[in-house]
Amino acid sequence: MESKTSDNLQDLQYFGEYGGVNPSISDSSTYTFLSAKKMFDTFEGNTEGCYLYTRHSSPSNLYLGEALAAMEGTEAANVTASGMGAITAVIMQLCNTDDHVVSSRTIYGGTYAFMKNFLKKFNIGTSFVDITNLEVVEKAITPKTKMIYCEAVSNPLLEIADIKALSQLAKKHGIPLVVDNTFSPLTITPARLGADIVIHSLTKFINGSSDCVAGVICGTKEFCLSLKDVHSGAGMLLGSTLDSLRAASILKNMRTLHIRVKKHSENTQYLAENFEKDGLRVVYPGLKSHKDHEKLKSFMNKEFGYGGLMTIDMGSLEKANALMEMMQERKLGYLAVSLGFYKTLFSAPGTSTSSEIPLEEQKEMGLSSGLVRFSIGLDNDIHRTYRVMRECMVALDILKSDTTMV
């Protein structure tokens, strides 16, 4: 699928207050009005281009929102102080007491915990389903269902959602499809495939430097304005406001996103192919052995590759932990959660980012205790990385020493 998302980002051009090549940073919490009537009209939502209070909006946040909307091909975008700030605002905007959500069962642990443990305070139910089985998804929809929620590439099992088919199903039942695209910026453009709302944790690939947390909600202008409504907007009233300085920093980092995504994908493809040849159980959408490889290939933006995430099953939690500790000692990366950093990050999801999911449910969805999730970095010599990783695996008897190195 051809996409001009990187061109849209390249074509954005802002001038700073004094002609600077970077837009000026709005370092104010509140904004003045020349008339009391204009303030009143702004509170009522009857003005365009007026800033009221930074929790509502600010120029710096607006610039970043425009860039993200251009990237995802949506009418508008609202930025938030974290990925969870984006996710929770969307759910609370769309759902009322006694409503229902149909969600993928393989999602980020924080999202799972919010849906399963927090929403019940409002008697909002969630059905967690195999999002790749459309028949199961449709059976879970009830008259009270207010959305279908999924991740474009699931965390941590790297399953691929059929966004086109899910969109058709959502439209059939008159409900929105909400897609978290954190794992696959530029590679997948969910809105062009029919998603109504697209969410990102900007903390990850989009910012790329692991120095802040932030999120975004991309959608129609109407929906984004509803989130900022001073009387009923979940974004406004829940208060997940991104700091203007951070918004400006993320906007500058976005300028290299297309280069970084390509390198993350290139490096991950190399490691996945070679460790699979070594006989390890590797899951990566760029491998022909991945069950959703052809599905993703049919709608991805091919120039950006298959992404920077892969998993390898080490057979046991003990071996997984030992490998990660040794890799960190060998300076291959960090034993840390998150993704999209310039160095490789690795963690065992079952005891970290997916630990909110009960063990029996982890087993049911195929999340083994020995699974290690790798966010592969921007290493210049990826063969060197492969060689040192392999040495660690041989030392821990994950790979046999007599296995021929690729």
Automatic annotation (TrEMBL):
Cofactor: pyridoxal 5'-phosphate
Keywords from the UniProt entry: Aminotransferase, Pyridoxal phosphate, Transferase
PTM annotation (N6-(pyridoxal phosphate)lysine): residues: 204
Record-linked Gene3D superfamilies: Aspartate Aminotransferase, domain 1, Type I PLP-dependent aspartate aminotransferase-like (Major domain)
The keyword Protease is annotated on this UniProt entry: no
GO molecular function annotation: carbon-sulfur lyase activity; pyridoxal phosphate binding; transaminase activity
Organism superkingdom: Bacteria
GO biological process, one term: transsulfuration
InterPro entries: Cys/Met-Metab_PyrdxlP-dep_enz, PyrdxlP-dep_Trfase, PyrdxlP-dep_Trfase_major, PyrdxlP-dep_Trfase_small
A GO CC term attached to the entry: cytoplasm
Family the UniProt entry places it in: Belongs to the trans-sulfuration enzymes family.
Name under which the protein is recorded: Aminotransferase class I/II-fold pyridoxal phosphate-dependent enzyme
Organism (species): Maribacter luteus
